[in-house]
Amino acid sequence: MAAEREKLVLIGNGMAGVGTIEQILKLGGAYDITVFGSEPHPNYNRIMLSYVLEGSKTIEDIILNDLGWYEDNHITLHTGTTVVRIDENSKQVITDTGMAVPYDKAIIATGSNSFILPVPGSTKDGVVGFRDIADCDAMLEAAKQYRTAAVIGGGLLGLEAAKGLVNLGMDVTVVHLLEDLMERQLDRTASSMLQAELTRQGVKFAMGKQTVELTGDERVTGLRFSDGSELPAEFVVMAVGIKPNVQLAKDSGITVNRGIVVDDYLRTSMADVYSVGECTEHRGTCYGLVAPLFEQGMVLAKHLSGVQTPGYEGSVVATKLKISGVDVFSAGEFTETAEHTVISAKDEWKRTYKKILLKNNVIVGAVLFGDVTESASLQKLVKNGTEMTNEIYDEVMGTSCCGGGGAKKGMSVEAMADEEIVCGCNGVTKKAIVDAVTENGFTTVDEIKACTGATRSCGGCKPVVEQILQFVLGDSFQQSAKQGICSCTPLSRDEIVAEITAKGLKTTKEVMHVLDWKQAEGCSKCRPAVNYYLGMIYPDTHEDEKESRFVNERMSANIQKDGTYTVIPRMYGGVTTPEDLKRIADVSLKYDVKVVKVTGGQRLDLIGVKKEDVPKVWEELDMPSGYGYAKSLRTVKTCVGSQFCRFGTQDSMGMGAMLERKYERLDMPAKFKMAVNGCPRNCAESCTKDIGIVGNDGGWEVFIGGNGGIKPRIADAFCKVKTDEELVEVCSAVIQYYRETGNYLERTSEWVERMGLEHIQTVVMGSDDNRKELAARIDFALAQVSDPWKKMLDDKNTRTALFEQTQV
């Protein structure tokens, strides 16, 4: 008869505690496990709350271990239940509902609470912290009802909260006691660069301000500072710090200083009771970042599983901030003193900054801003106390030994030690990833993530994981197993399209149900894709599902950093009239448009339109939408051509306007840009467009697959035609073939390389019948489209719901 397994109780269902349990399961620790969590959710990624707030992820997207995981591992989970006392004599944990659960070993992982400033008014309605899903929900609701917000605290959490609220359309001011943001992680130079960048993104700042009172009656209306000045605010987020949640330990008689005091094996003063995470104090230090908490968890998991392990000796703290294009990193010491040697480089044009601190030639700290590609390497060097050498200097500073400014080499994964941590958030080593590939035959990052946890938290280690995958698989890496369009399904784009057609599926919900999606509602990645595929297959019958669209497409306008919108009227071929220009000027003045911008696509952006004014601007402009927000044709750029230019051989303006009128409003896999030149001088830059057209004495030359964006690509020469009719037919066929075979969000530059130029030429140019059939299918689809602005203006319910909610 098998011996009865010991009972392990985890108090706290957060990342540190559940991370420890995951390690115990991997090590084969034989326990009957019970988990208590005060929140009503399964284990989720607290690091990603800022992404939920800014709208790029949902709550479902950040769940780390769903309810099925607990069941699969025979773990008893009690959500919405708080443990209030540990009884040492009876070896039981007691909950707020009176439940008593016996334990042989117990782990306290109660985390921390937001520190709420003890100032008058701090308990008013509209004042929250930023620690959990409930706080995130409160912010999302506040953004629907209120306009002005203040975030007290210029640290990591405060800045993430502020940027999230700005993205939700609120007017946000960060209030900070000191003159430097993130002063515990950044030096003054990096702090000032960070503040300047966030200011550009719409965040306001009140620096050097001490809050002494929150004003208002039942609900907060503003902040009063020690200098007597005030700041209006209908919503306040307290992000001035965290305090370890030690109440349970105190009430149970466990030794507590600032946190729950533990030794190097995470043992508390009570026998068989351990503590990990933000509630824990080790050698006088409480850690508030996730990587040290997982390092603690790894030591504790080995200890509880009977695996020989050195004790926990503390962590080198590293901070990485990523919000809307702002990259900041620091590790170890960051403020120089007389005993430091400083290596630094600042590029104001590229907005990058790098500083490395040495003490007796040992690397003891680093700060990066704007470019954090060396963050993993520098963190390792700081942690290991590595001595600076010429070779290391060249690698991290991007210069050659002779000062020639050579390219950065970067750290090779081949040279990494087996026990080197790749994923700091989850404590995953290089060896764990290599073993996952060699022992299980894994070929994708998603498989490695599911097995080891690497990339599951912040995702910053994904490039290194991919490099290890490529290193282990070698030449077979390119032939690795296919991946589904997202983690919700193993099906590829082509398989989904085939199943929709074969089974006659008509809605995203139907697709996800019939094709057995892992997530019944899908995710933010697959919902828009499936909605596009349905519209492409059934252009005449598919009812567009707005809830599956990205926010700009739902609003038919581009939301900006400060919560206002950009309205872009269509200007066919970049040509307008004095009457239209006057109308644009009049409307811009009437509705206090902040900026009227001439774009690279030869049209005018009206930037800074208030949300409630957007439909009025559409109505009074009485011009069609320029689709600056959509996965469709944006612009057709033209030169003046034969109408005016002495070198022009073809009417580029006329052709550009005609093509823009023809293809506007049609959904495509990604945004689409065209250009038409009247002669080979290429003034309209056809070489960097999805379809570029160049006129000559004998007709037109067509180029496809160009891109001038993040991944620049010169377009490939596709064909030459003699007549305007042939040109239109070729363009129609290429666009429709792209629509029918492109992956969602795949630009033509990637599509051409994936499909092969010769293959596309064979399909479009190799058969007149094929080309005409493709052109006929796009004409049929084009017959179904309509202008979204007019449609919205005619739909009062939708217009009211999206734009006319009462502002309190």
What do these coordinates show?
It is a single chain. This protein is an alpha/beta fold and 808 residues long. It has 26 helices and 38 strands. It has a 5-stranded parallel β-sheet with strand order 5-2-1-9-21. A 5-stranded parallel β-sheet has the order 11-18-12-13-14, with helices on one face. Helix 1 runs parallel beside helix 8 (290-304), helix 11 (430-440) packs across helix 13 and helix 21 (724-741) crosses helix 24 (768-782). It is globular. Mean pLDDT is 87; it is low at 400-411.
Short description:
With 808 residues, the protein is α/β, with parallel strands linked by helices. Helix content is 33%, strand content 21%. A hairpin with a 4-residue loop joins β7 (92-95) and β8.
Query: What structural category arises from helix and sheet content?
Result: alpha/beta
What is Rg?
30 Å
Number of helices: 26
Given as residue ranges, the uncertain stretches (5+ residues, pLDDT < 50) are 400-411
| Rough outline | globular
**Helical proportion, percent range:** 25-40%
Mind summarizing the main beta sheet? 5 strands, parallel
Trace the largest sheet across and list its strands.
5-2-1-9-21
List the helices and strands and how they pair.
Layout: E1 6-11, H1 15-26, E2 31-36, E3 43-44, H2 49-54, E4 63-65, H3 67-72, E5 76-78, E6 83-87, E7 92-95, E8 100-102, E9 105-108, E10 112-114, E11 127-128, H4 133-145, E12 148-152, H5 156-167, E13 171-176, H6 188-200, E14 204-207, E15 211-216, E16 220-225, E17 230-232, E18 235-238, E19 242-244, H7 247-251, E20 260-262, E21 273-275, E22 280-282, H8 290-304, E23 318-323, E24 326-332, E25 341-347, E26 352-359, E27 362-369, H9 375-384, H10 390-397, E28 421-423, E29 428-429, H11 430-440, H12 445-452, H13 462-473, H14 493-503, H15 508-514, H16 526-537, H17 551-555, E30 558-559, E31 565-567, H18 578-590, E32 595-598, E33 604-609, H19 614-621, E34 633-638, H20 652-663, E35 672-677, E36 691-696, E37 699-704, E38 716-721, H21 724-741, H22 748-755, H23 757-765, H24 768-782, H25 788-794, H26 796-803
Parallel strand pairs: 1-2, 1-9, 2-5, 9-21, 11-18, 12-13, 12-18, 13-14, 20-22, 34-35, 35-36
Antiparallel strand pairs: 3-4, 6-7, 7-8, 10-19, 15-16, 16-17, 23-24, 24-27, 25-26, 26-27, 28-29, 30-31, 31-33, 32-33, 36-37, 37-38
Helix pairs in contact: 1-8, 11-13, 14-16, 21-24
